[in-house]
Specification:
The two termini are 33 Å apart. Helix 20 crosses helix 21. The model has no long low-confidence stretch (mean pLDDT 93). By secondary structure, the protein is an alpha/beta fold. The protein has 24 helices and 29 strands. Bound molecules: adenosine-5'-diphosphate (ADP) and magnesium ion. Adenosine-5'-diphosphate binds at residues 503, 526, 528, 536-538, 543, 545, 576, 578-579, 584, 677-678, 691-692.
Length: 699
């Protein structure tokens, strides 16, 4: 479907145009104010002419086919007029009002009819239930609000918002950045966020894309478009709302139940190099920071303030947010002190007040920080405000000029930042913006925005391209498509093919055979019932651990056979080595519709259901992902050396995580979910052992 008739229409028909301040009247006026160069066709049987344009009684009476039709009429009159679109040759349409799929059966019916007309006629529909479209560079708008100052809107941000009010909110502040394209996508009955994203990735004037998202209609195309945006060097900044996880229905694997939609979506964004933000403040500051001349080459920020108190507050915030503010190296510190005088702390943030000679100290502080090898970006932070009752405005403007001069002499990105949002000296902002220095509001949001952009420009490690593959014949042999779950024994054989150690074990048919197998394995041993019908064994008393001799094994056999009788499950009895040492962790993979498989890792045991302390990544893993996941969980310290106990063998654990990624690479379409639960990690140098495994085949 072509979106150019929506964004770059050669003609616009305004259905329900009027000469009053109203949606229809404003739209014609707005098009004129944007300097729209195409044909405007007001449509309303009540007028002969409207705002000096001929007005047409119906869509049927237009002198030429309209590229786009804006429906400024009530929902009851929409269907009869919408049906005319194919006949009059319209290529696109915008429906603003609500009353469709979001409002009960009748609305759903109308929306369904509209969608069918669009599909048949190749009509790109924006909405319904939206604010519409603006293209400031092209000079067109089919948008609900009157253009008060159209020339102020232009910029390089492409905005795609499912919420109309968020469009209103973002477009109401264009001081630090402006918009190249705006799409208020509403119900997305036909054209969805992925379509708009695709268009904006290719749009020359759009350099950064902001998305306000409630749901993703077309995940596969969406992630493909994210990849393309990253390849083209356009950051996509996503604010996703509705993060309360939907309850999942049948939960068979631990992993499948753990990772809800929100966590998975965040990982999808990470894997496809989008920048996720948590609220509007963060979105806007990241957009403001994106206006810098260039993005930092690394994550280390050098901050300059004029107060020890501010410096400490900034440092506390930075620490909490995991931002890097490396101390100023000794030589740089000496250079700073030589002019500024006494400097508190470790020089980052650099409190450049010193002897109080502001006109000398500020430029010198900037020079030391920008020339230091210990940072990748320079941030000058202080507060003041228009209309403040105290202080010289001249000295504030001087500060902005010092920052500007510093930026002009340096390759490093420079930023001006306030301690908190709400304070600004209007006059400084364009002065700095002219030479690519963004002004950021608030320490938390500002530093985070710079950090996110520098992570974004650092890119991602390449995806794993491993030669490890499972043997296709053995995969076929498992006959996955006929099984609801694959029991521990069979699942482990598959895992073992990828070089991951599993417990020594044997299925035995008789009491005598199991005792002799136990003797061979060596005590202590574990007896378990294994069956495709019993994915969770211990809750039915079907796991007997710590069996130390033949008689205990015999008793366990008797007990298991007794317990199996009423279960009507086809089950085998398995004897396996008991792994007494080590720390229990779990790792697993679950498929998420449209987004692919995600790998989860966390500590074993039931606490995780409460703590939700697990790491997640989309597959295939990238180099370094497994190691990072192991470090990332809050309980990571448990795997290090504690209280005289040796550190756990995390290297072998990382290898097991990579093996799961490789398994999905070679067998992914056949496997929906896998649990390795638990894996026991032995002390460093001794590896790890998979103790239990469960596979859920794809249906
Ligand atoms: P379930 O199907 O209930 O998950 P498991 O095979 O995971 O059954 O066994 C339950 C628990 O018993 C494990 O979490 C682990 O603590 C312990 N366990 C099972 N097998 C072994 C083993 N071979 N060595 C040590 N502990 C084991
Ligand atoms: Mg288990």
């Amino acid at each position: 479907m072509q979106l150019s008739p929506l964004f770059e229409p050669s003609s616009v028909a305004v259905l329900g145009a009027s000469n009053r301040p109203s949606v229809g009247g404003d739209m014609v006026e707005t098009l004129k104010r944007f300097g729209y160069k195409g044909a405007i066709y007001p449509v309303n049987p009540k007028y002969e002419t409207l705002l000096d344009l001929p007005c047409y009684p119906s869509l049927r009476d237009l002198p030429a086919p309209p590229d786009v039709v804006a429906f400024c009429i009530g929902p009851s009159r929409i269907p009869e007029n919408f049906r005319l679109l194919p006949e009059v040759g319209a290529k696109a349409a915008v429906i603003f009002g609500g009353g469709y799929a979001e409002e009960g059966d009748k609305g759903r019916q109308i929306q369904a009819e509209i969608v069918e007309i669009c599909r048949d006629g190749g009509i790109a529909l924006c909405g319904p239930n939206c604010m519409g479209i603006i293209n400031p560079t092209f000079g067109s708008a089919t948008y609900l609000q009157i253009a008060r100052e159209p020339e102020a809107i232009g910029g390089n941000v492409g905005l795609i918002s499912q919420s109309g009010s968020i469009c209103i909110s973002l477009l109401s502040d264009v001081q630090r950045f402006g918009f190249s394209l705006v799409a208020s996508s509403g119900n997305e009955a036909v054209v969805n966020a992925a379509d708009y994203l695709e268009f904006m990735v290719d749009h020359e004037a759009t350099k950064v894309i902001a998305m306000f998202t409630e749901t993703i209609a077309d995940p596969e195309r969406y992630v493909a478009a994210l990849d393309r945006a990253a390849d083209k060097g356009k950051p996509v900044i996503v604010l996703k709302v509705g993060k309360a996880d939907r309850a999942r229905q049948a939960i068979t694997t631990h992993t499948g139940g753990l990772a809800g939609d929100t966590r998975v979506f965040s990982e999808v964004l990470r894997a496809h190099r989008a920048i996720e933000v948590d609220d509007l403040d963060e979105l806007v500051e990241t957009l403001a920071a994106s206006q810098g001349r260039k993005h930092p080459n690394g994550r280390r920020l050098g901050v300059i303030t004029s107060s020890g108190g501010m410096a400490e507050l900034i440092l506390d915030r930075a620490e909490k947010a995991g931002l890097e503010l490396p101390p100023l190296p000794e030589a740089d510190m000496a250079e700073a002190v030589s002019v500024i005088g006494a400097v508190s702390g470790d020089g980052n943030p650099l409190d450049a007040w010193g002897n109080g000679d502001f006109n000398k100290n500020t430029p010198h502080g900037l020079k030391v920080v920008r020339e230091s090898g210990a940072n990748d970006a320079v941030v000058l932070c202080y507060d003041n405000n228009d209309g403040a009752p105290l202080g010289y405005i001249e000295s504030l403007m001087a500060r902005a000029k010092f920052l500007r001069e510093s930026a002009e002499q340096s390759d490093k990105p420079h930023y001006q930042m306030t301690m908190r949002p709400g304070l600004r000296i209007e006059e400084q902002i364009p002065l700095l913006a002219e030479c690519g220095v963004p002004t950021l509001f608030g320490v938390r949001q500002g530093l985070q925005a710079i950090d996110r952009l520098s992570r974004w420009s650092a890119g991602l490690q390449p995806q794993r391209n491993s030669a490890q593959r499972v043997d296709p014949a053995s995969l076929d042999g498992l006959k996955l498509s006929n099984r609801k779950t694959v029991n521990e024994f069979d699942s482990k054989r598959l895992i073992a093919q990828l070089g991951v150690r599993i417990t020594k074990e044997k299925i035995a048919a008789t009491r005598e055979e199991i005792i002799s197998a136990a003797d061979t394995i060596g005590y202590p041993v574990v007896l378990k019932a294994v069956s495709d019908d019993i994915p969770h064994k211990s809750e039915l008393g079907l796991v007997k651990v710590g069996l130390t001799d033949a008689s205990a094994v015999g008793q366990a056999w008797d007990d298991l056979t007794e317990r199996l009788k009423p279960l009507e499950a086809r089950a085998d009895i398995l004897v396996q080595e008991m792994v007494s040492d080590g720390i229990e962790v779990f790792a697993g993979v679950a498929y998420h519709e449209g987004f692919g498989h995600a790998l989860a890792f966390g500590m074993g045991g039931i606490e995780i259901e409460v703590t939700r302390d697990f790491a997640l990544r989309m597959l295939p893993l990238r180099d370094g992902d497994a190691e990072a996941m192991i470090q990332e969980i809050r309980a990571a310290a448990r795997l290090g050396p504690i209280r005289g106990q040796p550190a756990a063998d995390t290297a072998s654990l990382a290898a097991a995580l990579y093996a799961l990624s490789d398994l999905i690479e070679s067998a992914g379409s056949a496997i929906r979910e896998i649990d390795l639960n638990p894996i026991k990690i032995l002390p460093e140098g001794q590896g790890c052992v998979v103790v239990d495994a469960l596979i859920l085949p794809a249906q």
